[in-house]
Amino acid sequence: MATLASLKLTAAKKPTQQSPIQVRRNKLCQRLQEQIQLAKAKQAGTTYVAHKSRIVKDAETGLRQAVQQPKRVKE
Questions:
Q1: What is the residue-wise DSSP string for 4-65?
Q2: 1: which residues sit within 8 A by CB, 6+ positions away?
Q3: What is the largest CA-CA distance in the chain?
């Protein structure tokens, strides 16, 4: 306990952004997961459709809403 009392604690700074390398790794992992799901769906004889969310503005009312659209997955 004496050694714990002698330690000084400081507040750690949380990084606000990911490094560009980490961003690329995350994108690669995400795309590989989509390809794995596509391969599993083909093996099972079903279809796999990935969706992406887009914000569309309604011309009449001017309101913006999120719409799910199918995303192209490279095979």
A1: HHH----PPPPPSS--HHHHHHHHHHHHHHHHHHHHHHHHHT----EEEEEEEE-TTT--EE
A2: none
A3: 71
Report residue 26's pLDDT band, with 50, 70 and 90 as the boundaries.
very high
**For the whole prediction, is pTM greater than 0.90?**
no
3-state SS assignment for residue 73 = coil
Q: Is the pLDDT of residue 19 over 70?
A: yes
The residues, ordered by sequence, that sit 6+ positions from 64 with a Cβ below 8 Å of its Cβ are 55, 56, 57, 58
Amino acid at 22: Q
